[in-house]
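Board notes, transcribed. Complex of a protein with 2-Phenylacrylic acid.
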Amino acid sequence: MTSLFEPCQVGAMALASRIVMAPLTRNRAPGALANARMATYYRQRANPATGAGLIVTEATAISQQGQGYADVPGIWSEAQVASWKQVTDAVHAEGGKIVVQLWHVGRVSHTSLQPGGGAPVAPSALTAKTKTVLLVDGQAQFVDTSAPRALDIGELPGIVADYRQAAANAVAAGFDGVEVHAANGYLIDQFLRSGSNQRTDAYGGSVENRARFLNDVMTAVVAEIGGDRTSIRLSPVTPANDAIDEQPQPLFEHVAGLLGPLGLAYVHVIEGSTGGPRDHQQGPLAFDYPAFRKAYALAGGKGAWMLNNGYDLSLAQVALDQGADLVAFGRPFIANPDLGLRLRKGGPFNTPDRKTFYGGGDAGYTDYPALS
Ligand code: 8OZ
């Protein structure tokens, strides 16, 4: 029986445990730059003996066009690469590992965040029924997303190139790898799902066509930095950010088949509704996670299998017993910098404070106490 506290080789990374810090948007990167406060926050969670075996950063924009929220970081400019160096150095000084999550929000954005105040971009000109976070007088406020414009097919290679450049930048910034954010109703997920993709070209219609953009991005990132430093996050049935598809099973089994041959480090799967019920389903049938994984393995996929959503120690042990390799913890890592140690001891656990999740300073960010 594997325990959470055992090491695991994940692509190019030798992890000291199977405990992963999930990507968590915190809106504390003014100017889209990483900073000393962020370095402190990640450092507090980086020592594998007390914190995470692997940290996945907060979602990080690959371009200005890919920005959808106030004060989230980017990784497209040299200044951003330099700013992330203090974070990767801090994590490595603790003996930790860290990958950056590469993000393009697509239609989940607001004109005030877009280049020239333009419309956000999407597979189709369909407004997402969801909110984004803007800072109004320094206070985080949820506002409706803006109406997007449909991307011209001639624009897609440029976005793929932005992902590729962001992956190269990630390596230059000292990251151990990247996790491509293909979950939660953002750009790649918008292409995947029938509810947000009504294109009539090679990127819409059939499951094969809707998965083409994901495949273009993954192939480009793998070509740039290697499969053993590349991973992906998927959320097959989440309703987050108005992500809708009537038939997620064939869609995601097809995606799994595309990912198999890429030699990825890991596949990160959000079960059920992101941040909500694990048993949430979309479509007429219950999503068959073992069949999804089997489709990946049948296509030659050997990457580690990472699960996320609402895990505690006993549920994580069940997941490992059933063949998962890694378990990602989100909100517990917000409130417990030494979550790894607390899991080993069986608690106690600090309670996360929702009021300080998005935006603000040290309060609710770097001031949660570790066990003495
Ligand atoms: C919460 C708030 C803003 C963004 C995601 C990147 O859902 C996010 C996110 C979560 O993946």
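The mean pLDDT is 97. The chain is about 30% helix and 15% strand.
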